[in-house]
Write a structure and sequence with these properties.
Belongs to the binding-protein-dependent transport system permease family. By secondary structure, the protein is mostly helical. It has 24 helices and no strands. Helix content is 77%, strand content 0%. It is globular. The two termini are 42 Å apart.
Length: 528
């Protein structure tokens, strides 16, 4: 029985126990939150279902749907213009339009509050321009609204679709378009009838990433005073009503599962293959009279998503540095960020190895289950992971409660799959014959993994560690919920200072987060 499960090649006990232990650590916080919510009491469930949950459902669903549709439209259109047309500076735009990925939406929210907020630059300009006031009346923009949150999240999530759609467009075979053109189809008709069906998997992948991001976002939503499930969970926890927080968490977990199920179902129904054996690169289409319009469109997105936020941050950083913002406290926050993110990255690199090795070399329903459990925290918001860690550490491991180790473990639960994906890509290039040779010399599986395989795939593992490091530095809700007293990171300081409108203190920390986040962008651009 045991041998048949592993197809006659079972892993060693040490390797299997290590993998099972990692999967358990990854999934326990989520399972614990679900368990607590089921025993929160009928009264609490009824009270929340009567008033709070319907409103939160509407806020969360409407925002998620609106941002996803708009970001997909912007991402696909930009990818088409940059990859398939003769717009000037095509290579530059491919790099530049991916840059909003390195700007966390809560940092973007800070910059747009500074520009368009009630006491922002645009408001002051409007007030000081008499003809604007006389013609249009009072300042019309309310950044603290649905439309403000929608705009910010759209501007900083469209690159998910842009990157994946760009990769698909570059791999699209010209032969299909030529056949369509020979049937008398116009360029527009070819796009809708030929290109778009081939782009559907890329659009679906980008849309699911955006939807999950909007569901899980806390920083931008909280700063712009809009309440979705994540913000409500955090505020319930802050007021020590953990039972209500766990009930709201369960609803959000079910929402996440629903979105993942819809995506899996649509992907299974729609399959599009390029079956020809001869690949020919797609034509570069002339824009002709549409060139000025395309340049204006691309330039406007670039201005709104990159130039304006960076200009605002640089402006306030210069003021902040002049006022002594780069003091001992600032470097203390930076060191805290590096310490906890570095520790999380190191843990992820170590823990990812047994899981990807089991999945690749010892395929079975056990190794597949371990792999799936390890993804449990990745698809869920940081507030839920944070809540699970609070329940577990407060009740069962009090020695580690209120220490930075708890934050690092939350980061591991959230971002381990990033290290797994990078390591898995490298491991797929290493022949299993190397393992067999090492096993024939008497090495047990766990020793083969660390002594033979790890040195071969180290660059991929390190790339995964770099991705985890950057994601951890940007993570806000889990850090806010779990930090011990007096332990602030750069992300926390950006949130706290910006909430209190002390922009000259928030800007240098936000700028440093962006500069560090540029590091893995090269990896992402190579991947896509």
């Amino acid at each position: 029985m045991w041998f048949s499960i592993w197809k006659g090649n079972p892993p060693g006990l040490v390797l299997l126990l290590f993998g099972l232990a990692v999967a358990l650590v990854m999934s326990i916080p989520i399972i614990y939150v679900m368990w607590r919510s089921l025993f929160a009491g009928v009264d609490r469930w009824m009270r929340l279902l009567d008033g709070r949950i319907p409103q939160l459902l509407w806020n969360t669903f409407s925002l998620t749907a609106a941002v996803t549709v708009c970001a997909v439209a912007i991402g696909v259109s930009l990818a088409w213009i940059v990859v398939r047309t003769d717009i000037p500076g095509r290579k530059m735009w491919q790099w530049v339009l991916a840059l909003p990925l390195v700007i966390p939406p809560y940092v973007g929210a800070v910059t747009y509050i500074i520009i368009f907020g009630p006491s922002g630059w645009a408001r002051n300009l409007w007030r000081d321009t008499p003809w604007l006031v006389n013609t249009f009346g009072d300042y019309p923009i309310n950044i603290y609204s649905f439309w403000g949150v929608f705009f910010v999240l759209t501007m900083f999530t469209y690159p998910y679709v842009f990157l994946i759609a760009s990769a698909s467009l570059r791999k699209m075979n010209r032969n299909f378009e030529e056949v369509a053109r020979s049937q008398g189809m116009s360029t527009a008709k070819i796009f809708w009838k030929v290109n778009l069906p081939f782009l559907r998997p890329a659009i679906g992948a980008g849309a699911i990433l955006i939807s999950l991001y909007v569901l899980s976002d806390f920083g931008a939503i909280a700063m712009m005073r809009y309440v979705t499930f994540t913000a409500a969970i955090y505020f319930q926890r802050a007021s020590f009503d953990t039972a209500s927080a766990s009930v709201l968490s369960l609803v959000l977990i079910l929402l996440t599962i629903l979105i993942l199920w819809i995506e899996a179902r649509t992907r299974r129904k729609n399959k599009y293959y390029q079956t020809t054996n001869t690949f020919r690169e797609p034509d570069i289409l002339p824009l002709a009279k549409w060139k000025p319009l395309a340049i204006i469109y691309v330039g406007l997105v670039f201005l709104l998503s990159i130039v304006l936020p960076i200009v605002v941050l640089v402006y306030w950083s210069i003021i902040g540095i002049g006022m002594g913002a780069l003091d001992e406290r600032f470097f203390g926050f930076a060191w805290n960020s590096i310490k906890v993110s570095g520790f999380a990255a190191l843990l992820c690199m170590i823990l990812a190895m047994p899981i990807i090795y089991l999945k690749s070399r010892y395929p079975s329903f056990i190794s597949s289950g371990i792999d799936k459990l390890s993804y449990a925290g990745y698809a869920l918001p940081g507030v839920i992971v944070g809540l699970g860690m609070i329940f577990i550490f407060n009740n069962h491991i009090p020695a580690l409660y209120n220490t930075f180790y708890m934050i690092a473990l939350a980061f591991v639960v959230r971002f381990l799959p990033q290290a797994m994906q990078a390591g898995e890509a490298s491991l797929s290039l290493v022949s299993p014959r190397i393992d067999e040779a090492a096993r024939s010399l008497g090495y047990p599986p766990w020793k083969v993994m660390f002594k033979v395989i790890l040195p071969s795939i180290l660059p991929g593992v390190m790339a995964g560690g770099a991705l985890v490091f950057v994601s951890s530095i940007k993570e806000l809700p889990a850090t806010l919920m779990l930090r011990p007293p007096g332990f602030d990171t750069l992300a926390v300081r950006v949130y706290v200072e910006a909430t209190e409108a002390i922009y000259h203190m928030a800007a240098p920390a936000a700028l440093l987060i962006i500069l560090v986040s540029i590091l893995p962008l090269r990896y992402l651009l190579k991947k896509y």
